[in-house]
Amino acid sequence: MCTLFPAWLRPLALLTLAAAGLVSVRGEDLPFRDWTDSRSNQIRARMVGWENGSVKLRLLFDGKVIEMPVGNLTAADQEYVAGRKHLFAPPGEPLPVPGWPGEVVAAEEFSVEEVAGEGGGRVYRTPHFSFRADVKLAPSLINQYARIFEATHQVIGILPMRISGPKDEGRFGVRLFRQHADFLSAGGIEGSGGVYLPASREILVPLASLGVRVIGEQVAFNPETFEPSPLVHEITHQLMHRWLDVFPIWFCEGMAEYLSAVPFSSSRFDFERIDEGIREHLLRAGGAVPTSGGWLAVDVLAPGELMEISHGRWSRAVSGAGNAGLFYRSGLLLLYYLAHLDGGGDAASLIRYFHETRGWELKRERYVAEYNEAVERHRRELIGWAEAYNKALILHRMETVAYNQKVEVYNQQVRAGFAAAERIDPGPRPGAPPEPPPKPAPPPILADNPDGNVPVDVKAAEEEARLKLFSGRSGAGLWAAFEKALATRKIRVQQVRAPDFPG
């Protein structure tokens, strides 16, 4: 009798990769938000489609997709749909790519909900964020924080890229600490105004570092000492979480620095003043030296060298004394140049670079999802095959045991002298054990790739897409164009080499 499960039917290991999942390439990352109809009925859902004047919404409550005529929605919801329906162009039609904003971008109107938290703390909820505080916050403080977070969310949605989905309850997580020691023990970094933890996808913020004052039992906002830039930097990382391991470090950090340099006030990012914001950021963050005639002198890494730096080398370098400013301002100025000063000043090469790299990552994700689905389907087929074969083996064994029992009785009757007519008939001898049926063939995706190696090399694709940023120029040519363009903004860049950190 063979074992119930043949030895070759070993467990099949699923191919698992970070962020693996079957994802649509059209409008796949729009966030959950509150939708209101003309009768003031409200639901929380995200836009997943657009067709014939109706918006398709996936409900947060149960995941079902419903259709709602756009005319039945509030004016704010109709405006939201109008600005995003281009993401759902019919298959085969190219998706229009939104350009870089060149005007003031203000956060949409929203309200803040306050509820009791764990351990006497408080939880404050906005449409896209959930703030957990270990102390009650004055309305002035939480409203100011909420405006920064929601406005940054709005800006990231307008840029030609898509944010990742909310972590839990449809909202991104933020933790606010009154005591600096609690901030550090939770994973904060000494001297920082906030930190983003990719593992938990939370932002940690020490209240004391961002300008607060204590009024009775509340922590209140202090406009004289408040500086939003550190928050915007970390929010950008949180909203771009999905791409942090896909794009090179210069792009991720450069984008966070760039958005934190855009002038912000009263819930508004003023892209019309980006030149002014860049200069102020360079002076505030250090490394820029004012010279005569309103010029700023700045040491930077050459764009070609900066683009080659890995995540590991960046981390090791910025941990060294005096290196952080060089790396961050180099990323900032390269992003600024590509978005506003290169070519026609329309960020065309940067947008092409992002979307080409993003497209390869989505192909990788789809392949991983399809491979895993095929593995699971084939596993079920093999289990069904084994169960059917084992059932036949068990039946044969039962028939054999029953036959042997009859033979034993027959032999006992012979030994006892029973007449032939009185003996039992054991019946026919069971045949040979059944042969296993043909083993199910693996699906083509598994047969073609038995080792589970993902055939989509996103790193190589990113390097290929990076050529879009050079626009046919050599490294020296890109530096010359970079240097000349910044000079038009009275920023004089001096090329320096990166510290010698391996990796």
DSSP helical segment count: 13
Principal-axes geometry comes out as: elongated
What is the rounded Rg?
32 Å
User: How many E strands?
Assistant: 18
Which percent bin holds the helix content? 25-40%
Question: Would you identify the regions where 5 or more consecutive residues have pLDDT less than 50?
Answer: 1-28
Structural class: alpha+beta
Per DSSP, what share of the residues sits in E-state strands of 2 or more residues?
15-25%
- Output mean pLDDT: 84
Sheet with most strands:
6 strands, mixed
Q: Kindly, what is the distance between the CA atoms of the first and last residues, rounded to a whole number of angstroms?
A: 57 Å
> How is the largest sheet built, in terms of strand order?
6-7-8-9-11-10
Gist?
The chain has 503 residues and is an alpha+beta fold.
